[in-house]
User: What shape does this take?
Amino acid sequence: MNDVFCKALINGDVQELLKVPKSDIHSHSTKACRRAWLEERINRKLAGPPERFDGLMGMQEWFTSEIKPFCSGSEGIVLRWEGAFAEAQRNNIKRLAMNFGAAEIDLVGGMDNFRKLIDTFYQKYIPDSVFEPEITYVSMCDIDLEAGRMDGYISSGFFKSIDVCGGEGIRPFEAFLPLYRKAGEYRLVKRMHVGESGTADDVRRAVEVLELDEVHHGIHAAESDEVMRFLADNRIQLNVCPSSNVMLGYAKDYKDHPIKKLYENGVRVTINTDDLLIFDSSVENEYLKLYQSGTLSAEQLNEIRENGLINYK
Ligand SMILES: [Zn+2]
Assistant: This one.
């Protein structure tokens, strides 16, 4: 498979790249379908994204005005979930970790209905893949309230990991301990969005305080040799999303994307989509972009691809 993948990268052969087994470990489920798939299902054209967004707020505003009105409510969310699994099938995603918010679960009638629904899509599209659902909370949430309600969502064992998203630096990391302690009781893999807009020190602090197993993004760790050493020594994987970083302005471009420095310093990285419906770049395209920009070699990208298929811990 190594040769096939490397050759496909070198030749820019998208069809071959699609066929090779890959992972997507950081993906927000309600924004994880392809625009083309959604357009076909709702029978209308949707706007493509601008080259750059004005930060996370700008991105959210764009999504709310350009995409959401045409696939809103619980029906729209269910459709986008189906699209996420259809994309995983199209891209031969053999290991898929997608995150879901409690509000969306409630919107479709609670955990039992939600599980049935998701299981239907899983069985229909990617029954042979490893699927690791993640529960996610926004950093502005009512932490005590959510920690108190958390058992209702995670006690069944459906969720394999926890995440906090929606903007960094809003609260000290210690504030999130009630959520992460609860996740620890259920042995969930602990992840958080950190070091996307935040600093290398933020990444280290978050890992230490919340005992994170992995970090979503974490790209600014590349600014500190010491933090990179810390991540490598402690086997902390960074789930990197290049197009998201470039389009949100957190990375200058693909060529100088921090993933190169992280990889070269022995930090374990994976390559992921974040929000395919927004950034319009599917997994095979993320690999291709990094190869064609000269960021990493075909062999290095293949090693990253293979690593993504295996749980690091
Ligand atoms: Zn994200």
